[in-house]
Amino acid sequence: MKEHQTSSDSMDEYISKYPTEVQEIMQTLRKVIHEAAPDAKEKMSYQMPTFELYGNLVHFAAYKNHIGFYPTPSGIEAFKEELSSYKGAKGSVQFPLNKPMPYDIISRIVTFRVAENAQKNEDKQKNKK
């Protein structure tokens, strides 16, 4: 589905370019991320829906057969056992559209990334003093 991904100015615009069933998955994913990271802000980055909190938190994107989820290499490494049944790379994982989305794992990854980014921000603030 990457063919839909001409530049989008907002997450709503991005999501609206996909078939209804994919839109529903992305809207639920968006809700799960907001629940795990209520202070995160939405933006578009790398032409993908992105959440930021003390820097980029997670990205996601729709493709023909999967949703790509990008929680940075540390987010993948911390959950590598739970993600082992999915295709992935150093900083990404592919969730097939023909299988249930593992929203519980996604929520825990986002919570992990929130803590990680908050700690990095705290360390950065300490180093400025």
TrEMBL record:
Which InterPro entries does the protein's record reference? YdhG-like (IPR014922)
Q: Which Pfam families match?
A: DUF1801
Q: Out of the domains of life, which is the source?
A: Bacteria
Residue span, YdhG-like domain: 23-114
Protein name, entry field: YdhG-like domain-containing protein
Organism of origin is: Paenibacillus pini JCM 16418
Q: What is the lineage of its organism?
A: Bacteria, Bacillati, Bacillota, Bacilli, Bacillales
